[in-house]
Design goal:
alpha+beta, 2 domains, five-stranded antiparallel beta sheet, 6 helices, 5 strands, 58% helix
């Protein structure tokens, strides 16, 4: 077996490992993107504690087939980079969508969420969902408001009885 073939098999295994651990994956076309924009995107993805890497489409296709993820072949044409989020479903989608606003050459091809292929529109919808922290804060506020009103009401009753 040639060394090149062995390297490709190792890359497919690496891709499979990353994709199987991922909460969500965004596939991006970076054709026409300059080095500065790409470097900035890589840094933002790293801040989100995610991975960003360029793989050959044939290796991506093979890894996806071995993971029984169907429907990606139609998108795997041209230059493809992969942003992989291990923490949550929306983090890397937000980062890539923000980068796309600054760089029109950057195009979201598709994504994978819960092992299913989703189109670019779905990825953009994911990017609009608030983060878990924001949702927890809103939930805490919703729980706090009625209790605060109850406390104010009880204090008003106690003050009235004290008179």
């Amino acid at each position: 077996m040639s060394a090149n073939l062995e390297n490709k098999k190792q890359l497919v295994e690496e891709i499979k490992d990353k994709l199987s651990r991922a909460k969500s994956v965004v596939f991006v076309s970076f054709l026409g993107t300059n080095v500065q924009s790409d470097t900035k995107l890589r840094a933002e993805v790293r801040k989100a504690e995610s991975d960003y890497k360029v793989y050959k489409n044939t290796l991506l296709s093979r890894a996806l087939k071995e993971l029984n993820i169907e429907g990606a072949d139609e998108y795997l044409k041209g230059s493809t980079s992969v942003a992989i989020d291990y923490k949550d479903e929306v983090g890397v989608a937000k980062v890539v969508s923000e980068a796309q606003k600054e760089n029109e050459n950057l195009q979201i091809k598709f994504g994978i969420v819960d092992g299913k292929v989703v189109d670019d529109k779905y990825v953009k919808q994911l990017a609009n969902i608030p983060s878990k922290e924001e949702l927890y804060a809103k939930l805490a506020f919703l729980f706090k408001a009625p209790m605060q009103k109850l406390a104010i009401g009880l204090k008003a009753v106690a003050d009235k009885k004290a008179e």
